[in-house]
Amino acid sequence: MLPVTDHLLHFLGLERTAFRTCAVSALLFSLLFAFFSLLLRLLRTCWAFYSTCRRLRCFPQPPGKNWLIGHLGTYFPNEKGLRDEKKVLDRMNDVVLVWAGPVLPLLVLVHPDYIKPVLSASAAIAPKDEFFYSFLKPWLGDGLLLSKGDKWGRHRRLLTPAFHFDILKPYMKVFNQCTNIMHAKWRRHLGESSVASFDMFEHVSLMTLDSLQKCVFSYNSNCQEKMSDYISAIIELSALVVRRQYRLHHYLNFIYNLSTDGRRFRRACDIVHRFTTEVIQERRKALCQQGTEMWLKAKQGKTLDFIDVLLLARDEDGKELSDEDIRAEADTFMFEGHDTTSSGLSWVLFNLAKYPEYQEKCREEIQEVMKGRELEELEWDDLTQLPFTTMCIKESLRQFPPVTLISRRCTEDIKLPDGRIVPKGRMPG
């Protein structure tokens, strides 16, 4: 019996009995045990954090804002932020230590030789970092970008047919059509404006979203001329996810959900999910009513879109993807497809404008391939006849990769080429 038991019974106004004494003593022992367990866990966490900090001292880090926010707010996703970040990476071109807040260190691996050990490690040693990718989870669900393990492997196998050449070749007509719309907008803009410049990324983003919506859903929203709610929601979600990464207090879900950005994020998610779900359910209903053979016969002469391929997909056990799985993959494809493609194309156009002599060589190469044609549109087989243009695209992608960071959380220490050890934890590369 603890000495404080009598005082506690007296304070509660309870008569002292053997049962009450034992019960209160047991309760106090449980509370003390829980308290010391929690204290021990806290001490272990603090010690592990201290040990990690000691091991990270060998890595250089740029000046930060202050101890509370670390390097958040130092490099914003704009032109000035990119220039400042490039200055740092030119000076620290192998690996850089940055802090997202006071307790979240991130090792940014820059040089390919440093990235290789992480990417060549197994998924068990260097899995996807669930923390930052979790910002996308309410929007993209458990699709190919965010899933892992057996589910990732199964979905990867089922999605492979969607990228077969026979599926992709007919999409060239869609790409040409959407690009022609963008070109017409540019001509109209230049004819109406005395200033021969505009935001290239905005126009290219709408073009890629227009292309994807036609290839994924066989749906024409005419979004390049008139913005739709669905396209507006995707653009807003992309911007909100990026902005959340730069606001430390928004890392906590319960705070973010109560914020203005959190409410806008949920509304945009609802719009995107509603559109995708309606298309999937309508298409599945038609498939069930007509049967696979009749349904495919009705598709003859038409292009199979991404939803069609996923609805027909079966694994080795004959199981199909659920509506939720298809929605997650379609939403993932719309996000990853438009964001990376529009960024990559914008940088290609930027570099060609920067080096007009290479731009002219690309133009001559394309004009040579198209010589004698009535319709000035590239075909699938033409893509292999453009070696110089292909080299320019690849060089632009090398210098300005559309995906600037991929995040991994190492479960084991990884040795770098110079002998330094990367301790287990989060590590964008």
Could you characterize what this model shows?
- This protein is mainly alpha-helical and 429 residues long.
- The protein has three domains: 4-53, no CATH class; 59-126 and 411-428, no CATH class; 149-399, Cytochrome P450 (Cytochrome p450), CATH 1.10.630.
- It contains 17 helices and six strands.
- It has helices at residues 4-12, 18-56, 79-91, 112-119, 130-133, 137-140, 149-159, 165-168, 171-192, 200-217, 229-244, 253-258, 260-298, 306-312, 323-354, 356-369, 387-399; strands at 95-99, 105-109, 407-410, 414-415, 421-422, 425-428.
- The strands form three sheets. Strands 1-2 form a two-stranded antiparallel ribbon.
- A hairpin with a 5-residue loop joins strand 4 and strand 5 (421-422).
- Helix 13 crosses helix 14.
- It starts with a helix and ends with a strand.
- The mean pLDDT is 86.
Task: Present the secondary structure layout.
Layout: H1 4-12, H2 18-56, H3 79-91, E1 95-99, E2 105-109, H4 112-119, H5 130-133, H6 137-140, H7 149-159, H8 165-168, H9 171-192, H10 200-217, H11 229-244, H12 253-258, H13 260-298, H14 306-312, H15 323-354, H16 356-369, H17 387-399, E3 407-410, E4 414-415, E5 421-422, E6 425-428
Antiparallel strand pairs: 1-2, 3-6, 4-5
Helix pairs in contact: 1-2, 9-10, 10-15, 11-13, 13-14, 13-15, 15-17
